[in-house]
Amino acid sequence: MLTKLEIRETRETPYILLDKEKNIFKIEGNSLPENANHFFLPIFKWLDKYSLSPNKETHLICDLEYFNSSSAKLIYEIFLKLEKIKTNETKVWISWFFESGDVLIEEKGLEYKSILYIPMEIVEK
Amino acid sequence: MNIDTTFWFFDRISEDNLCLLYNGNFSDEITNKVIELSEYNIRNNVSLSKLKKKTSFLMAECFQNIVRHGETENKDGHINQGFFLTKNWQGVYYITSGNLVENKKIDELKQQLEKVNSLSKEELKQLYRNVLANQEISEKGGAGLGLIEMARKSGQKISYHFKDFNSKFSFFYNQIVLLANEIDFPKSSCSFELSEAIAYHEKMSAHNIWVIHKGDFSQESIFPVLKIIEENLQKEKKDAGYKKKMYHILVELLQNISRHCYIAEEKKEGIFMIGEQKGYFVINTGNLIENSNIPTLEKQLNQINSLNKKELKALYLEKLRERSTPLKEGAGIGLIDIARRIISPINYSILRINDTKSFLTINVIA
User: Fold this and answer.
1) Which helix H or strand E contains B285, and what residues bound it?
2) Tell me: the pLDDT tens digits for B296-330?
3) d(CA B108, CA B312)
4) Which residue among A45, B19, B76, B201 is least enclosed by CB atoms within 10 Å?
5) Every domain of chain B and the residues it spans
6) Is the CA virtual torsion B246, B243, B328, B272 positive or negative?
7) Which of A11, A30, A69 to mutate to test the interface with B (most CBs of B within 10 A)?
8) Pairwise CA distance, residues B266 & B215, whole Å
9) Is the minimum CB–CB distance between B266 and chain A shorter than 8 Å?
10) Which of A73, A101, A111 sits opposite B240 (nearest CB)?
């Protein structure tokens, strides 16, 4: 079984939980590292392994308070990796949360939704 | 605050290792972050490390003076309006603060200052003990102990100046200096005059500038700056969406300096200022860039400025989808996203300094 990936939240990087066994996939908090590549690399590696034998259902929770533009590209990369998992047998979808009144995060979610081929629900908290 | 204001300041403080100017409301949250930011800068400067404890202490003392004694002018709703400057220049650390005092209290304050300035180290120690033991704490607390402590810790005389504000109040400025190496340092070289600090404050007030920070723009120093500004936004009572937008613009601009500036002595130096203009916020950043990077940057900025909001969104999404291995960060995506959220184009100016570098200023209004 693929071991879970859990990364503690810092003031500049988000909380990550990718747990195949419990079927929980989460990204929460802030993401504004200067070198975002470095932070996201283990997540991409994990998802690549996961894509070899994904669960029947993969539901990613995105509950981000803030992320900078270089994280934006890498968050999109996560979504692209999820898109690749989706087949006729597997269900993949994303929930994008935003705080009421937080136009920036809501808009960012809607933008992702407009360019993704997997379902994304935009949820006001 | 126009685009030239940035260079006006940069030109005057470009030799400083650190310069932080603050003109606005003082709360504990803000003062803590100002201290944190200064500590960060001191930590990164070996010659100053000895001063770290002293400077933090003295800054806290100045802030307490502003918060405790600074009189309130309620008409325009400002609370504890004050001015604060901390700069490190040629091995000398300067701490300047300013706050309003009632005109009728000036004489007493002058007497206290003159007395403190006339005493030797030993006499100051004695006075401190006497005041502590005998004098009742005034209703606002303090009892002049602050001034005595400032003089003791700095070991130098306190410079001060009173400037007319109106019939009831004056601005009380004071400046203390800390020397990294007292033995080597001839006192005559401490030539950053209080009058210069006052000129900065006047310029800041005239242009409605809250914060100016010149120093290292590495990631770690961004957080205290963000916090200081968040606190100020809080007071402006703008809605959550607006605050988040401002936060985003700030992060992108600060990280932009960090990513693209000319690196001198391993430091990512730049200047950042934020102020208000007709109900909008104005942010200026300035940093040195290598001349060889100018053509690409100009092309990028001109392209961004030629697009309307809809076209900018399309370009943003295009850049977002652009893939490369390894994934390249940035590629102007930050600037595009800023342009989408401001009310006018990204103003910029490039001033040639010499054959290798130029000074780039960016000015945005949101």
Assistant:
1) strand B280-290
2) 889 999 999 999 999 999 999 999 988 765 555 55
3) 60
4) B76
5) 24-216, 236-366
6) positive
7) A69
8) 12
9) no
10) A101
B236-366, CATH topology level: Threonyl-tRNA Synthetase; Chain A, domain 2 (3.30.980)
Which chain A residue has the Cα nearest residue B320?
A73
Name the residue facing B320 among A68, A73, A99 (closest C-beta).
A73
- Interface contact flag, A101 B255, Cβ < 8 Å: no
CB contact under 8 A, A102 and B244: yes
pLDDT in tens, B175-205: 998 887 665 555 545 567 899 999 999 999 9
Q: CB of A88 within 8 Å of any CB in chain B?
A: no
Peptide bond into B326 cis (omega under 30): yes
* Interchain CB contact of B247 with A (< 8 Å): yes
DSSP B187: G
Residues of B in contact with A76 (CB under 8 A): 320-321
Inspect the interface and report whether the beta carbons of A37 and B329 lie closer than 8 Å: yes
Amino acid at B351: L
**Residue in B321, B327, B333 closest to A69 by CB:** B333
Closest to B84 (Cα-Cα) out of B57, B112, B60: B60
How far CA B125 is from CA of B118, B130, B332, in Å, comes to 13, 9, 58
Instruction: State the pLDDT at residue B330.
Output: 52
Structure tokens at B157: 């005389």
Q: What is the pTM of this model?
A: 0.85
Burial annotation B297-310 (CB, 10 A radius, 16+ → b, else e)? beeebeebeebeee
ipTM over 0.90: yes
Q: Tell me the per-residue pLDDT of B84-93, one tens digit each, with 9 for 90 and over.
A: 898 888 778 8
Pair of tokens at residue A48: 């690549």
